[in-house]
């Protein structure tokens, strides 16, 4: 058997994840994607003596279905959990104190991305982020809603979908009460959690709006 070099590996792509009723993929949390990187490394690279090396995808920030799907860093250069998992796998110890905040999942009115989230236009909904660790008052939370980019073609350079003005009713750290967009169609609500060490964590949930 010949030795080999893995020139590209990452977390699951949009084509591999579960789809919503309107055929858009559900994106994992940044923490879950970091686990997928580690599992792929241990399974296909570390365990095989024929492996001559590896190259991860994508060492930077890019738009591919979403602007967070394959981004190990954000636009400001903040580091995700993927960065620290890879650092540890490559032999550099990372303490828990260095790592980003850990998001478990997002709920909207107590439902998650596994549910079919279809709302009437202008409904009022409450999104909540569940964290792995106890509350940390130093964390900062940023929320955004984007139209869903669901018309991409293979090998097409993607543009980030339009950012929809977020109509906030009430916001308190990891909880956001907002008004659903007015226009019909598919959307995603994103949250980014920033610490004071140059790290970020993120997740998003797709939902669909009906204007009746």
Can you put this structure into words, describing what you see?
The protein is mostly beta strands and 212 residues long. The protein has a single domain, classed as Immunoglobulin-like (Sandwich). It is built from 2 helices and 11 strands. The strands form 3 sheets. It has a 5-stranded mixed sheet with strand order 4-11-10-6-7, with no helix packed on it. The protein has a 4-stranded antiparallel sheet with strand order 3-5-9-8. Helix 1 runs parallel beside helix 2. The longest helix has 17 residues. The N and C termini lie far apart (62 Å). The mean pLDDT is 91.
Quick synopsis:
The chain has 212 residues and is mostly beta strands. The chain has helices at residues 30-46, 81-89, and strands at residues 4-9, 51-56, 103-108, 118-120, 124-131, 140-147, 163-164, 167-172, 175-179, 185-194, 200-210.
């Amino acid at each position: 058997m010949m030795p080999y070099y893995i020139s590209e590996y990452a977390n699951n792509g949009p084509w591999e994840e579960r789809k919503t009723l309107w055929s858009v993929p559900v994106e994992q949390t940044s923490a879950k994607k970091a686990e997928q990187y580690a599992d792929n490394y241990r399974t296909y690279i570390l365990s095989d003596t024929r492996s001559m090396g590896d190259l991860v995808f994508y060492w930077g920030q890019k738009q591919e279905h979403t602007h967070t799907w394959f981004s190990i860093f954000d636009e400001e250069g903040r580091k995700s959990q993927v960065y620290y998992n890879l650092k540890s796998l490559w032999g550099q110890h990372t303490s828990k104190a260095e790592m980003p905040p850990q998001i478990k999942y997002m709920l909207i009115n107590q439902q998650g991305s596994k549910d079919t989230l279809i709302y009437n236009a202008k409904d009022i909904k409450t999104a909540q982020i569940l964290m792995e660790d106890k509350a940390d008052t130093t964390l900062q939370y940023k929320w955004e809603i984007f139209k869903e980019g669901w018309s991409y073609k293979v090998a097409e350079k993607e543009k980030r979908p339009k950012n929809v003005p977020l109509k906030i009713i009430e916001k308190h750290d990891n909880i956001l009460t907002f008004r659903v967009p007015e226009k019909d169609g598919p959307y995603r609500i994103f949250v980014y959690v920033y610490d004071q060490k140059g790290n970020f964590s993120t997740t998003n949930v797709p939902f669909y709006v009906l204007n009746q």
